[in-house]
Amino acid sequence: MIFAIRPASQADVPGIIAVDMAAVRTSQALAERFAASLSAAVADHVRLVVVAEAQDDANVGGGAGVVGWAKTHHWDYDDGPALAGHYLGGVTVRPDFRRLGVAAELTAARMAWIWERADRAWFVVNVQNEASLALHRKWGFREVARGPRFHTVTFDGGEGVLLQAARPLS
Ligand SMILES: CC(C)(COP(=O)(O)OP(=O)(O)OC[C@H]1O[C@@H](n2cnc3c(N)ncnc32)[C@H](O)[C@@H]1OP(=O)(O)O)[C@@H](O)C(=O)NCCC(=O)NCCS
């Protein structure tokens, strides 16, 4: 399977919502508000929204289009140990396209974007999300703190991890 990883446009918003619906990360009831916040993120030059688009139509079927997406978020103030900076802001891959390297590519694109702007990257995740912790290990993220909330992010089950990575020297 070949994927194109590219910055999202406003036209991708419905496809992104479809990915989150398939992954049960949003619902029809929340879709309208989600679309508005996505649209704002796509238009914001301080954030990056990226999509993965399946290129192999024969395997995709049903006009799958966007099969994964991810974004960054920029905080311009510190919240305790969660310093101001660029944060990886969530990545979702359609369940039927997982373990194919899509999230890794979406993360590589976001990390490259952050390294053009900063020498530190940040990331918060639920302590129970083993898949996400394993995915991000490759970029050298190290745990900075644990807690119930970092900036506005809270966690199902109550505890999250704050991680930081440093820009590679080369
Ligand atoms: C986490 C998620 C984004 C991974 O997407 P993916 O495209 O399947 O991930 P990749 O194929 O790029 O996997 C890259 C690496 O991540 C790790 N990984 C991915 N899924 C994993 C899982 N279910 N269990 C353990 N490790 C996992 C592995 O180290 C994997 O490398 P490998 O396949 O060589 O072992 C996907 O499962 C998902 O959308 N989950 C729901 C949303 C979510 O939890 N997002 C992360 C928090 S914001």
Please specify the SSE layout and strand pairing.
Elements: E1 3-7, H1 13-22, H2 28-43, E2 49-54, H3 57-60, E3 66-75, E4 85-93, H4 102-115, E5 120-126, H5 130-137, E6 142-147, E7 149-150, E8 153-154, E9 160-166
Parallel strand pairs: 4-5
Antiparallel strand pairs: 1-2, 2-3, 3-4, 5-9, 6-9, 7-8
Helix pairs in contact: 1-2
Bound molecules: coenzyme A (COA).
Coenzyme A binds next to strand 4, helix 4 and helix 5.
Question: How would you characterize the overall build of this protein?
Answer:
The chain is α+β, with helices and mostly antiparallel strands and 170 residues long. The protein has a single domain (3-166), classed as 3-Layer(aba) Sandwich (Aminopeptidase). It has five helices and nine strands. The strands form two sheets. The protein has a seven-stranded mixed β-sheet with strand order 1-2-3-4-5-9-6, with helices on both faces. A hairpin with a 2-residue loop joins β7 (149-150) and β8. α1 packs across α2. It is globular. The model has no long low-confidence stretch (mean pLDDT 93). The structure holds coenzyme A. Residues 23, 90-93, 98-104, 125, 129-132, 134-135 line the site of coenzyme A.
